[in-house]
Amino acid sequence: MIYLKMIALDVESKFIQPSIEILNLRIDEPITVLTDLLIAIICFYAFFRIRRIEYMGRVKWYFKYYFLMLGLGTACAGIFGHAFQYRLSEEWKLLPWVLTLGSVALIAHALVEVAKPLVRPGIFRFISLFNMLVFIIALFFTMWTLAFSPVKYYTIYGMLVVVGSFSYYIFRRTGSRGMLFLLAAVVVGFFASLIFSYQWGLSPWFNHKDISHVILSFSVISFYKGAALIMDGSVIGP
């Protein structure tokens, strides 16, 4: 038997999603879980599609495992961070957070690698090392504080500063359509983060988390399209 169990709404505001129970198993934030899994399915699809692209090199490796880690991260977020968080300790939140950090680091390195032929070797080495340093710092503070804020700030850095700026730079230098898809993905992702941050929701059954997840699914699709176009040889050689 399936029935709804209403959770009290926060006075100040925000749409807190009701739980459901299925065969005496309580599932918190069910729509949020479903939208997390939607992103994960898209990521796994992109991972397997990129594996089939006939291109050998670091760029393919970075993009491929970006989608895999992001897919695992969003799946774990849905299951451990939302559905069954009430049964788990706070430390379980680290799993999706660390996977998310890793995915952002991978796509940032992918863009730096694509830009490698277009920048001086010294600049390439500096940016690569700096990106790695920022990732290590974000990972350290995430695990030390058990807070989401380092993940949020590193994602902003990785997506806006690195992926956004390099996509624009490479597009200006090469005219690659793939970069337009990446830029579109960054813009869509930024819009989703605004909805999440300001908690703009429609109802408890479709709150700010759900809306941002649905929008992020389009961002992931755009990232996949961009990555596939980049590896067709229009920007980087075989």
Briefly, what is this?
By secondary structure, this protein is mainly alpha-helical. The chain has helices spanning 30-51, 58-83, 94-115, 121-145, 149-174, 177-198, 208-234, and strands at 2-5, 19-22, 25-27.
Question: Roughly how many Å is the radius of gyration?
Answer: 19 Å
From the spread of the alpha carbons, the general shape counts as globular
Number of domains: 1
Biggest sheet, in brief?
3 strands, antiparallel
CATH topology: Rhopdopsin 7-helix transmembrane proteins
Number of separate strands: 3
Rounded mean pLDDT score: 88
Helix content range of the residues, please?
A: over 70%
Please explain how this structure is put together.
The protein is mostly helical. It has one domain: Rhopdopsin 7-helix transmembrane proteins. 71% of the residues lie in helices and 5% in strands. It has seven helices and three strands. Strands 1-2-3 form a three-stranded antiparallel beta sheet, with no helix packed on it. Helix 1 packs parallel to helix 7 and helix 4 packs antiparallel against helix 5. The N terminus is likely disordered.
Secondary structure layout:
Layout: E1 2-5, E2 19-22, E3 25-27, H1 30-51, H2 58-83, H3 94-115, H4 121-145, H5 149-174, H6 177-198, H7 208-234
Antiparallel strand pairs: 1-2, 2-3
Helix pairs in contact: 1-2, 1-7, 2-3, 2-7, 3-4, 3-5, 4-5, 5-6, 6-7
